[in-house]
Amino acid sequence: MKKVAFYTLGCKLNFSETSTLARLMEQHGYERVEFNQQPDIFVINTCSVTDNADKKCRKIVREAQKINPDGYVAILGCYAQLKPKEISEIPGVDAVLGASEKFRLHELMATFEKVPTGQPAQVFNSPIEEAIAYHASYSLNDRTRTFLKVQDGCDYPCAYCTIPLARGKSRSDTISNVVRAAQEIAERGRSATAVKEIVLTGVNIGDFGLINGERNETFFDLIRALDEVGGIERFRISSIEPNLLTDEIIAFVAQSKRFVPHFHVPLQSGSNKVLGLMRRRYKRELYVDRVQKIKELMPHACIGVDVIVGHPGETDELFKETYQFLNELPISYLHVFTYSERPNTTALTIKPVVPGHVRAERSKMLHILSDKKRRAFYESQIGRTATVLFEEDVENGRMQGFTENYVRVVAQYDPLLINETLPIRMKGINANGLVEIEEVEPVLEHH
Fold this sequence. Notes:
Elements: E1 3-8, H1 12-27, E2 31-32, E3 41-46, H2 51-67, E4 72-77, H3 78-82, H4 84-88, E5 95-97, H5 105-108, E6 122-124, E7 146-149, E8 151-152, H6 163-167, E9 171-172, H7 175-191, E10 197-201, E11 210-211, E12 214-215, H8 219-226, E13 234-237, H9 247-255, E14 262-264, H10 272-278, H11 284-297, E15 302-309, H12 316-328, E16 333-338, H13 356-381, E17 385-395, E18 398-403, E19 408-412, E20 421-425, E21 428-429, E22 435-436
Parallel strand pairs: 1-2, 1-3, 3-4, 4-5, 5-6, 7-10, 10-13, 14-15, 15-16, 19-22
Antiparallel strand pairs: 8-9, 11-12, 17-18, 17-20, 18-19, 21-22
């Protein structure tokens, strides 16, 4: 039995697909092992959102060669679709699989042969226009939460982004298939470690419902159907565009049995001028409206924000606009991305280009602001009762978990509590900025 190991770079969507590919390989007679356990085959699922992801791919190939110099190395994912020739020339790489080919990994493996030193890898890469099939995926037994893919691809041509070039047009699963997958996850969970939380993931999940270019279902229809699935305690929406986050979605989550009060809403810039240069589909006024609506219906909701700093055309004044905008919004944390040039994107034609050291300084400022926002949000939660799902991350005799509204808490390690949801009361914030709880036991409400 040949041994295969997987390494995933990038987003939750990649994790859901890697896990599904690993299960397919196991069904076809391969043994899944850890990366450092001398596998015969290394499969690296790549990201290409930033330059850094490309560098990481090369580093992991070098690590694989150290672990097993005779090991077969296959690269797939977004970077593999965008730059197949470049990857095929990385020493040690034997095969490159594009977006249409990655789900054929198990059948292509039968014909794979180690490439002689000095020769380029075999490339299996169709034009992205041919990536029209939808491949259902979810992660399982990799971590406490399960990532369930509901949508793939994107029709939004943002100036800085390569994802439409790497994943193709927006396309979705059907509601009945997604519900069936959620039920399958709930059933599988009962036989081993129960899955308590499912995170819905995709490239642009608010655009859910497109099948062969036609829309018969919507994301709102999907979450209503999933709310009825038994055996799963929590559903979390990974990220949703502000122009697709409707009042009805917000109102539904506010009264939902299972959807948690946590929204991650990409902003990218707080300046309308920069949003225009980025070719985003909304203005900052809409973003304010979405945040206010969430806070009005769910005062304790957690709101995460994606921001890009240093996009071409972002002057000092326009960056200050973004900073002030974020500073005044009642949000909970930021994911800050430093703009990096990506081939074949329209951002490359925009001037002025922001120098690297200025991008780094702006990133640092927003990271500090994010820490301040997170602390203020955590402080607003002290004294509240919440439910925590404890994860397997154990450090120095302490374990961590997240509340439904995404507050990270720490407690004394207890193996019986891993992957359990328990009511707790939040007591204070420790030196590491995490919320401490005194006791992990049901909290009785006083009447």
